[in-house]
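Course assignment 3, question 2. Fill in each field.
Student: A.L.
Task: Predict the tertiary structure for the chain below.
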Amino acid sequence: MDKEIFEIHYISTSYGVSREEVIQWIEIEIIHPYNAEDLLFDLEDLQRIRLICDLKEYCDPNKESLQTIMHLIDQLNYYHNKTP
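Answer field:
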């Protein structure tokens, strides 16, 4: 089965975020694209971007808070998946 891949344009139009904002998220390492050089994203990336957009809409965190929130979510997911 082929992996579904999305270009940055799709993200910008679907989620209403600018290319620059997505690039900033990559730079602060809260998203890790399928292919960072060509700005290509998979479904997991899209889910993470949707979560970031929801966080920005509901609580408007600054860059540092967003990094902390996403790090905590990653830790929760790790421990949840690790537990038998």
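Instructor remarks: The helical segments are 8-15, 19-27, 43-59, 63-82. The first helix runs from residue 8 to 15.
Grade: pending
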